Amino acid sequence: MKNILSTDKAPAAIGPYSQGVSAPVRSIVITSGQLPIDPATGAFAEGGIAGQTRQSLENVKAVLAADGLGLEDVIKTTVFLKDMNDFGAMNEVYATYFSANPPARSAVEVARLPKDALVEIEAIAAK
């Protein structure tokens, strides 16, 4: 069970993430960065940043499920964006996946992602 940390002594979250998360850990799962590749087709998901964000998060879900975990077990994500101007659209999709007790998150713009993806997302989950 994760514990959401919140304090007025640090800036409030400005999106679907928590200031911090603590969790008693028996084991931890760290995903590699998940590109927005549809495993059925081997191609990027359609729909621009929204479609690519959705697919990256579906891929994170699949990796976690391989060890019996779900998105509710995620305590930290890192979102890598090709263009920070896509942050709002990414954030809208991200919020649908982490609507309650969201994990801590970092989001950064990078010069380039593998295969010229628009987004890549990695996660840390605890059980």
| Helical amount | 10-25%
CATH class category: Alpha Beta
Which shape, going by the Cα principal axes?
globular
CATH architecture label name: 2-Layer Sandwich
Number of helices: 2
CATH superfamily: RutC-like
Which oligomeric form is depicted? single chain
Strand content: 15-25%
List the secondary-structure elements in sequence, H or E. EEEHEHEE
Structural class: alpha+beta
Which strands sit side by side, in order, in the main sheet?
3-6-4-5
Question: N-to-C terminal Cα separation, in Å?
Answer: 7 Å
Unreliable runs, pLDDT <50, ≥5 residues?
A: none
User: How can the largest sheet be summarized?
Assistant: 4 strands, mixed
- Quick check: average pLDDT? 94
CATH topology call? 60s Ribosomal Protein L30, Chain: A
What count of structural domains?
1
Number of strands: 6
Report the radius of gyration as a whole number of Å. Answer: 14 Å
Topology:
Elements: E1 3-5, E2 20-22, E3 28-30, H1 48-65, E4 74-81, H2 87-97, E5 104-109, E6 119-126
Parallel strand pairs: 4-5
Antiparallel strand pairs: 1-2, 3-6, 4-6
Helix pairs in contact: 1-2
Offer a few descriptive terms.
127 residues, alpha+beta, 60s Ribosomal Protein L30, Chain: A, 4-stranded mixed sheet, two-stranded antiparallel sheet, 2 helices
